[in-house]
Design goal:
Shape of chain A: globular
CATH superfamily of the largest domain in chain A: GntR ligand-binding domain-like
Order of helices and strands of chain A: HEHHEEHHHHHH
CATH class of the largest domain in chain A: Mainly Alpha
Radius of gyration of chain A: 20 Å
Distance between the termini of chain A: 65 Å
Oligomer: homodimer
Strand order of the largest sheet of chain A: 1-3-2
DNA sequence: CAATTGGATTATGAATTCATTATTCGTGTC
DNA sequence: GACACGAATAATGAATTCATAATCCAATTG
């Protein structure tokens, strides 16, 4: 094997600052360190990350395109709000995309992938039985990610990610009632069954409905939080 | 009425160069003046629009986030390709979103809007009878836009637009066979009926299927074009 | 004392300059 | 003559500088 056959190594050249910044800024917003409604002066970011304004501005533009921040002419960037109205706007879109994830995953997943997801599903059941919420959420995320990968559609993945990021800030905050949790587990099982049977349309419909139910259980909690303080 | 009650006028301050540039660049790509695979050196754009590289770079970053161009480290921007594989990736996403447009439009449209769209549908029929393709496409677009507006969901509108733009470059190129055209008209009528009955789920399913059929009629034509030259 | 106005300050928008990475082209060697 | 090496050129990445709009604050006026 000659050196000419070796794939170019990306690791040698570190990613562009703008890309790096976009990721880190996104994380700051996602983890709530930058809160909805908060203004983000460029100076703050240049100091925090030790870079000039140029890459900062490029990163902010991208985040604006993703809907995580709002840009106002000559007044800079503000972290997007997360009102109930916003959620009711975002979740149906996420549900529609989730439905497609299911349809495509049923068509394109390898048996290996279906197996892996079954294992995750079992693990999630054990977390549920223990009442271990952090672990449940963690595995839940993994299942979604695995499904998305199995769908084999980068465009879908991209848009799903962008919408999911906007929604997930709420998902982490909101509390899960025992009733809704049990319901969700049943839905997950039905999803897994359709998946293993490769019933594309059915799986799509189930996953779409699952996400819609999630909104319905979340909205009141968010509304209470906004109203209460 | 005092001056304090007057809404601030946006027209006085012209939009930021970066925004303006983003729109115009997008148009150039959409209309095919910048072709898929073509490199877009920054210098070219600064000369064409008479601005510095700073706003150009910001605009390109946004277009990359939208998927219209690809960015390669230290090698600039390239107009995204439009292969059959790409189309088969983009269309299902568009179909899923289109389905949601239907569901929501059925729920939220005013009777006025339904009426307007019925009129457009009738007009489209006349264009079909005349065999007037440009007019047919034009009205078709208007119907889609009206449906999107009736859905009352800005997030959906945003993602729909982004995905539709990627797809539409193909849509204009491809030729419509008489058979497919007649079929499409029937689908449109079914869509209109479900719309007027406000059958949300059914309308969603019909619009999703309509888009999926469109892909199936387009893909061979695109494949032939790619293969032939 | 409240409200408005004008200047000072600060932030963003855009252009320019500097640094680093690709690309091109010519030379030399096998 | 083909390939490899290296200097010259041109592109992009990032920082700095300049211009302009928004905000803040004090002074003035009713």
């Amino acid at each position: 094997m000659s050196l000419a056959d070796v794939e170019p190594v990306e690791t040698l050249s570190r990613p562009a600052l703008a890309v790096e910044l976009t990721d880190r800024l996104r994380t700051l917003i996602m983890e709530g360190e930058l809160k909805p409604g908060e203004k983000i002066p460029e100076r703050l970011l240049t100091e925090r990350f030790g870079v000039s304004r140029t890459p900062v501005r490029e990163a902010v533009k991208v985040l604006a395109a993703e809907g995580l921040v709002m840009l106002v002419q000559n007044r800079g960037a503000v972290v997007s709000e997360l009102t109930v109205a916003e959620l009711e706007e975002v979740f149906p879109v996420l549900a529609a995309l989730e439905g497609l994830v299911g349809e495509l995953a049923a068509l394109h997943a390898t048996t290996q992938e279906i197996d892996d997801i079954r294992r995750l599903n079992n693990e999630m059941h054990r977390a549920f039985d223990r009442g271990d919420r952090p672990n449940y959420f963690e595995i839940n995320q993994q299942i979604h990610a695995a499904m998305l990968a199995a769908a084999r559609n980068p465009t879908l993945a991209q848009h799903h990610q962008i919408v999911a990021r906007r929604a997930s800030r709420a998902r982490y905050q909101a509390n899960l009632t025992p009733e809704r949790w049990a319901e969700a587990m049943e839905e997950h099982d039905a999803i897994q069954r359709a998946f293993e049977a490769r019933e594309s349309k059915k799986l799509g419909a189930l996953m779409k409905a699952h996400m819609e139910h999630k909104l319905r259980s979340l909205a009141p909690a968010i509304a209470a939080k906004s109203g209460g303080g």
